[in-house]
Fold these 4 entries.
Entry 1:
Amino acid sequence: MENVLRPLIVVGGSVVLTLVIGWATDLLLRKADERHHDEPLWGLLRRARVPYQLVLCAALLRGSYDQAELLEEHRVGIGRTLTLVLIGSAAWLVIRIAGAVVETTYTRYANSRAHRDPARVRRVRTQVELIMRVVSAVVIVVAAASMLLTFPAMRAAGASLLASAGLLGIVAGVAAQSTLSNMFAGLQIAFGDMVRIGDTVVVDGEWGTVEEITLTFLTVRTWDERRITMPVSYFTSNPFENWSRGTPQMTGTVYFHLDHCAPMDAMREKLRDILRECPAWDGRAYNLVVTDTTPTTMEVRALVTAKDAGDIWTVRVEVREQLLRWLSEHHPYALPRINTAEAVPPPARHDGTSRPAFEKSRTGPT
């Protein structure tokens, strides 16, 4: 009977004590979160209650199991299992706590009145996410190594592993050359401020927004909701356009091919009226000039401005659509056309001689 009651008392007492301590801790965190609404730390720490309770339960079971002297024939296996659970749950808890602290620091920075620049906020966000990935990777590696060292065979082989670490490091470095280059490229992007989460970029002719940056790859969300994933080393070895670099304000152009008799003054007035009614125009500047001519048409460029890449696209399509509609309704002669009128013959020569036969055949009768 004692062999049955003792395990139940040990296990049940450990579980009940874990639940009581976990409930009390969660209650304190909830009250702290309600008292400090502008501080998200306490609410984020509540997400760690599951690994926290696992750490408590594993630690209590590990200690009480040794003292109770239960199941002597399975003592080593049960003790090692509890140790592995304790190490894993502790690593999980450390990652959750570190994430809560980092996220709170970023939120405080983003909400600070002294840091209202969206570019700086996106830069810090990129760095924070990459730092968290590095911290998580380090904690996981340390936890995995600690788990392996709980086995006597791994401890006995430690000397030989350390002796061959140099050769293994060289082999691993050669085998994982591309992976390591991407990891260093990810750190370079994060702290070199080359590209940030939320930046508008043009890569291989594709226009989109940077959605995710990791240590090995980067994801760009295009305007049509596609996701382009590429290694981060691409951005350190190839040129690309970053429209959000510096200030997000942008200048856009709209080109028209019109007839030479197009009313330029009226078009400038119409462009001004269109922009005044367009919410996406930031009011900084606009212009309409002739930039080139051909034998049949002339090239007209409309210049507009907006506060960011999304609004500049809206302004450009709005100007293009409304100006073309206005020309077709009020000045249809300004649109490109093919001239089918009879050619005007050149004047007679001053010496009184007639024109060559090929000129007569080309220009028609006089």
Entry 2:
Amino acid sequence: METGQLRALARYAPLLAAVAATESVGGAADELGIPQPSASRGLKALSEALGIPIVQPDGRTIRLTPAGQELARAAQEAVAALRLGIAAARTQDDLSRTELSVAFQTQLGERLLPRAIGRYRSQRPHVTFSLIHGSRDACIEAAVAGEVMIALVADPPELDTVEVLPLYVEPLVAVVPAGHPLASTASVTAARLLQEPSIRLNRGYGLHDSVLRLLGGAGPVPEAAFHVDDYRVARGLAAAGLGVAILPRASGGIGDGTVEIPIEDPLASRTIAAVVRPEARGIAEEFLLALAEAGR
């Protein structure tokens, strides 16, 4: 590849990555804080430098060509790698003697947190971790009180003294025993779930509010058949045929006699987020990126 082509790629890679992420030139321009005509000219200049059509007309706008899509994927990977590099450079000196303290909801400790720590420790083997788990409210309280740098929770409220950073959206499913009438259905509505005995987590757990929001959107919510303080207990009660639990998908193979049924409702999900103390943001930046990657 010629030097001029490499320079063009280096210059316009963030633009190409933003176009792929926002699926529009206007959205990319907004994300990068540049005028839309400048974004369009940049794409045209990149096409000319490479001798490859990167975009093509699509009504009143333009879209990436197949070649542009391939190049955009590479650009996204390059931009992500650069962001990690920048975060690493900013915190290099401090990280050599840092302990990251994290509070997390129990279910997030099964897959998300171990994967993120594994990714992070492959680059920062000398950083140590202090981990505690509990309910959503307890994790948030630990972050607000300064007992931990980061709290990993579901559907956190708006908070004044700490920063809330969404990581990813996690679908919720109905968990029923294998012999349940719903077990053979492709999906179920929230209205239909209101007809079943409900197994719910106690107040203070993120999933408690997520389930009430979902069921409440379909009608009056009856009292739960069981309130528990661990999602694994909720799954066990569902496996025993004592009610229906609304939970995240199992992180591994189920193998417990239950069936997970998708729920037809836009509210059948929860947002997993990191609650971060402002003074910890710089030190934790690289780990927050690892959390976002692990959640994909």
Entry 3:
Amino acid sequence: MKCIKTIKQLRAQIMHWRLARESIAFVPTMGNLHEGHLQLVRAAKGQADKVVVSIFVNPAQFDEQDDFSNYPRTQEADIAKLQSVGIDMIFLPSPEQIYPEKMLTTVSVSQVTENYCGAARPGHFDGVATVVCKLFNMVQPDKAFFGEKDYQQLLVIRTMVADLNSPVEIISVPTFREVDGLAMSSRNTHLSQEQRQQAGQLYQALCQAKQALFSQYNSYAEIEETCRQKLLGQGFKPDYFSICRRSDLQTATEKDTHLIILTAARLGTTRLIDNIQVDLSC
């Protein structure tokens, strides 16, 4: 496994693989790796000759400086985990490699970024789209792998790739969960022991909403409000709990069948996000 820190070194290795006609899969991360990340890596290994994983805590996607400063950085442990699953390269760029002085270009995706996490975190998705676009240009992968937990982010990246005709296939991997249903996330380490015991209720609220959609006894607005109140009663501070069209995250109507229920809520100071997909056509 190679550990590479500069774009020049990265491009030399990518060129070597391309000359050998080897396919390349890419998993971009911000480190503090958990089993959910490793699931992405395993999926990538099954679909390409070579796998590249990047670790870069991207300052451009944090709307709060404290959040950026406090983001867990566990590079040595991350490298050990990636060695255990047998990837081919770790890309560990510095901020100076990613963001040169006086950078004047930002990638911005409209519409799908305007609500939900985009409304709660202004500029967040511009930071995500810009760094992912730059990493795609550096790594030039055939396929890139993203988790479905960050569904709005996934849709932003799919939209960006389609609009810019980027020659990379985006592969989504289902959310990896703890035994109580809590979606695995690097932010879970910020939860106290008591909060961790409560946190699985976020997924339970999503499951309750999904069941209610199939029952057809309540309107979508009533289902959303019931679940918001449930979360409030369990100590969460919901940012949103919304039933949307899966294709574009617009508000769902009773005529829509391919849905996704999105939620974000704070438990103490930790902001948790999750979603569950619903297919009413089945």
Entry 4:
Amino acid sequence: MIGTKYRFTGTIAMGLAVAVMLASPADARRGGSLGSRGARTTQAPPPTRTAPNETAPVQRTMTDKQAPSPGQAANSRPAAAAPGKMGGLAKGLIGGLVAGGLLGMLLGNGLGALAGSGMLMALLQIALLGALAWFALRLFRRRPALAGAGGPTATAFAANPFAGPFQGNSTAPMGAFSPAPAPSGEIAITTSDQQCFERLLTEVQEAFGREDYARLRACTTAEVMSYLAEELSSNATRGQRNEVYGTELLDAEVAEAWNEGGTDYATIAMRYQSIDIMRDRQSGAVLAGNPDLPTTTTELWTFVRDARTSWRLSAIQEA
């Protein structure tokens, strides 16, 4: 009787812990606004022909929501979390990594062979997931400081600031992108950059539909990955699977592109179509969407890169 009581109490406690981790706004990837745009996270991106309506600033973010002081917005980076303190990024990573395992365990769908083995196995799962999250955070915090605004990336753009397809000289298959000159003080976006953005759009969409965590990690920042992992785990615990395929970029336009202390950001208005359906994981029955009819979506995707990494997805905003 005592053992049963403790097991029941432990299950309730774990359920409450998961509820706390998931208590952030319930923005799904579809129709949500999540991620970070550096010092411009709290600012609305400018309208474009592709996305002419005013877009609200990112709502779900781990970036400090303190507005940058005048003169810092164009060349600043969010302050890192103080050593020894669990910041927003840590909470998001742990929420994304742990939520799927714990929620599945509480519903009888744990992490494989350990599921249903009692309280001891549950504690072992929590310890394992916690160790993995700790290791990921250690790797993130050990990244060296980036070079200043005069670093290699900034210099490369400055060498030819108006080069690229925005002057009508592109020969790459990127007709979906609309020409637009680079505003004064911002970086230019080249044909190669445009090709990378279109590739990332397709890869992120389809990796999400395949539940390919490894590919998602390669294409997104740790923050965006934590949100996507949380959504995938939520789908799994409901016995559903969100399939996304056949992504095709219809129109795209650079809203803004800038450099902050050696880190480049580019916010791109994208209109694309894809097959987007929700299936029952067991029967395969379609619960929502039409597998024969593509849906059209307009969103603003922000990409980030630095001297050590290529472009990755860092924010999604509904247009």
